[in-house]
Design brief:
The chain is 74% helix and 0% strand. The chain contains ten helices and no strands. The protein has helices spanning 19-44, 48-55, 57-78, 85-110, 130-163, 172-197, 204-209, 212-230, 237-263, 271-320.
Length: 331
């Protein structure tokens, strides 16, 4: 489970150094930039500071993080031979990462009027509502569609633990968390029912988005159960991989709760500003998951090469000591 099958002789990617540490540094710099932007906004009273941050460096961070997540998930998938259960899990996680990348690209760049949007360079008049439509589509692709693939990937991981007899159990606090999440879903459903009774009509995209929060709750319970299964093996790189996924999904739940609280006026300043930055941390944690798995495989490859090199040197030394009158001696 913790030792992926290596079927590639590609060299270790030492040029990236410790990739998880670089990702943590990137999110720290992003958060510092966001805090500075909020401080300048509050100091000068000009909201352009915070708007510029989210439309430029913040958007680039989210898109770049999702692109790196996709690349890393594909690398993790390639570590496993055809037919291995975890290979299928990482394939689904890679498909989810692809949805995340496409969704971020549409919602953060193509669906926003900014200097980073290449559509702004289009010479002809753009159709009305194009940007809003692209952003809405991006939120759907990067939301429910992405969560479906991710839930399938985590389910395959849980199936591996179940078949090996290593599946952990949810604790009482986990069940309380599930109950709280279910209560939140009931509140949301009550709001939708109340809106339907007033005659409000929901589009197909809005109806698909109703799956967003239920899927995130399922993901959270799956990630917690995987982490419970890994507790006995310690907090190694593979444990950190699934721990990062668990924290990323948990922060996504908090972010969704913040959006709901803002819509009903329950998130005054500065809680609202904190909610803005949760998505950066969650995106970074979704990258950290496959980064830890990739780093674990890289170290395994390095160790295997070191062992092979030592064996080769030992074999050469032994052959040099062979008696030339006994050519058939073997070791």
């Amino acid at each position: 489970m913790t030792s992926p099958t290596i079927h590639s002789a590609s060299p270790p990617h030492g040029r990236f150094g410790n990739l998880p540490a670089l990702i943590l540094l990137a999110i720290a710099l992003c958060l510092v930039a966001g805090v500075v932007a909020v401080w300048l906004w509050q100091t000068t009273g000009d909201p352009a500071w915070i708007g510029q941050f989210f439309r430029s460096s913040g958007a680039l961070f989210l898109v770049g993080a999702s692109a790196l997540e996709l690349w890393l998930c594909l690398q993790c998938w390639r570590q496993f031979s055809l037919g291995e259960p975890l290979g299928g899990a990482w394939l689904l996680l890679a498909l989810g990462a692809a949805c995340h990348f496409l969704g971020s690209l549409m919602s953060e760049l193509l669906g926003v009027r900014s200097r980073l949007n290449p559509l702004m360079l289009w010479p002809a008049d753009l159709p009305p509502g194009l940007f809003d439509g692209l952003r809405a589509l991006g939120l759907t692709v990067g939301g429910p569609l992405r969560w479906l693939f991710l839930a399938g990937g985590l389910f395959l991981v849980l199936r591996v633990y179940f078949r090996s007899g290593l599946l952990g159990r949810l604790k009482q606090t986990d069940w309380l968390l599930a109950a709280a999440g279910t209560a939140y879903l009931v509140l949301e459903a009550a709001g939708v029912i109340a809106a339907l009774r007033t005659g409000k009509v929901f589009s197909l995209r809005q109806q698909i988005n109703w799956l967003n929060d239920p899927l995130v709750l399922v993901l959270l319970m799956e990630a917690i159960l995987i982490q419970r299964s890994l507790l006995a093996s310690g907090w190694g790189l593979v444990g950190r991989c699934w721990g990062s996924y668990m924290l990323a999904i948990a922060l996504t739940c908090v972010g969704d709760l913040g959006i709901w609280a803002k819509a009903y006026g329950y998130a005054p300043w500065p809680a609202e500003a904190v909610g803005w930055h949760i998505w950066f941390v969650a995106s970074a944690l979704f990258v950290l998951g496959p980064a830890y798995q990739w780093e674990a495989a890289r170290r395994i490859r390095s160790s295997l090469r070191a062992v092979a090199l030592r064996r080769g040197k030992l074999r050469s030394a032994q052959q040099a000591q062979l008696d030339p009158t006994c050519p058939d001696m073997s070791f």
